[in-house]
Amino acid sequence: MSSGNPFSIGLRAARANLVPGLVIQTLMVALVLVYYFAPPARGWFVVMANAKGHWGYAFSFTSAVIAGAVLPMLFKIVLVQRGRLTRADFSELLFLAVFWGSEGIVVDALYRFQVVLFGSHVDFPTIVKKVLVDQLVFNPVFAIPYTLSCYELRRHGYRFRSIGHAFTAGFYRTHTIPTLCATWCVWIPVTCAIYALPSLLQIPLFALALTFWVLMLAYITTRQHKAEPISAPLTEAVAE
Which domain holds residue 216? Predict the structure, then answer.
């Protein structure tokens, strides 16, 4: 494939994130195994499930904001800027909080909708159906286009008239498809682990995976001295 092939670009991005991706996948699988085979650790899972059951979408919003906005900003301010706050930090924090908070709510709604479609049983056929809808429908149709358009909006100073290109076939080919390929390589195994847990534990595990993923990318970005971080949602998408 040529260097301009979107699938080739996506695979190169996936290889660049191979190590952090494998780390996150290993951690998520380990947590699922702990849940099913280490009864003494069930107390932590019960606390998370109870919190999710009690707070609902508010839990999803808050956990996503903490994982995707607050923690990486603290990482940046403390380790990169050595405790110095700038005006741009507040703008970035607000953007990330709104973006990730909305993502948390949307992902929660997706998980609930899948329960309606396929049920809440945790068995192999149900997990496969949910992962396929998540990764082959939700991601390419909504999650990644939404993520990329939000970052384009930010890049153009929040001028909506300047991001029409983000909704064209050309942009989908050159940006969305590579992002989709990179996302699949990391998040298909992660979503398998998420759907392998009971419904009330899926958002907590998603938030935990997101926390590890964003912090690990922030760490790699810092070591490489790059000007802007590459964000990866999660479910979901490499944002830039």
Answer: 6-224
